[in-house]
Amino acid sequence: THRVKEPVVPLIKEEVFKMLTREKFREALSHWGLDLPLSPVTYPGSGEINETAMYAGDDLILKAYRDETACRLAIALAERLHAADIPAALALPLPDGSNALPILDGMWMTLCRRIPGEAMRADALIRRPEKGHRIGAALAKLHLATAALGEDWGDDEPWADHLLNWALPRVEGILPDEYLEDFRHRVETTRDLPAALIHRDPNPSNLIDTGDRVGFINFDLSRRFARIFDPCYTMTAVLSEVFEREKLPWQQNWPLFCKAVLAGYDSVSPLTAQERAAVPVLMLGNEILAIAAFAESSKYKDIFDVNMRMLPWMMGNMPE
Fold this sequence. Notes:
Layout: H1 22-30, E1 38-42, E2 49-56, E3 60-65, H2 68-83, E4 101-102, E5 108-113, E6 118-119, H3 122-127, H4 132-146, H5 159-170, H6 177-189, E7 195-198, E8 207-209, E9 214-216, E10 223-226, H7 229-242, H8 250-268, H9 273-294, H10 301-315
Antiparallel strand pairs: 1-2, 2-3, 3-5, 4-5, 6-8, 7-10, 8-9
Helix pairs in contact: 4-8, 5-9, 6-9, 7-8, 7-9, 9-10
């Protein structure tokens, strides 16, 4: 059901998890005193294999993190969400009582029980755009729950600095000069938006539909930043997976999906006028960041091409 991927030239910075062979996962699992069959974790939208995780048996998952800080934050976030009755994968303790295992080159690993349910799919969401309301409401609940962790948890996200100083110079010529001047000013205003400890990567694969609730997995990129970022990210992530797919009504339904996501968030935690005004800025900013990042990648050339076509379409079709 997925297009065959062409070989790409590997870049070291993109291959940090390649050292995590099946044997490394098996060795890590043995520290929990378990010997279970391992199977790959695949993304439902693309069929690509997740290099940072493997299923162990039917209901457990081994998850690797780049460093101890990211690992500890993911564990704390899952515990906080679980306490707030939001589905999240809790880390299972090792025999010595610790809940994370150092593996190699500074990386750490957890063993969690899988959230019962299915990862959401962009094609299903675009066919039923009203489902965006559940996602928006769930993201608002996530932010309310993470507030209990306090400001000591999570690094600040330098989104505006990264966009203005790194991404925009790399995409010169893509946007008109007269547009850029106003856009830079609007990017500066995002520094004053209401902030929270955000998921930072709420694409459909990281949203689990349990039937009555929406759960979250993969907190690798969690940071402290404008809370409206998460809804904006979800909306553009869904568009990127359905963009130009002829058999999906994405052109007419994506604005409806966006409206539902924002309405769902607002129903739980009301959005300010400043946040609503920032939605187009964050969405376009994320597209520019993606274009700048993937322009240097051979592995993600397909994503770069999609985002290059998405940017001008989004500029003319922003949700109201």
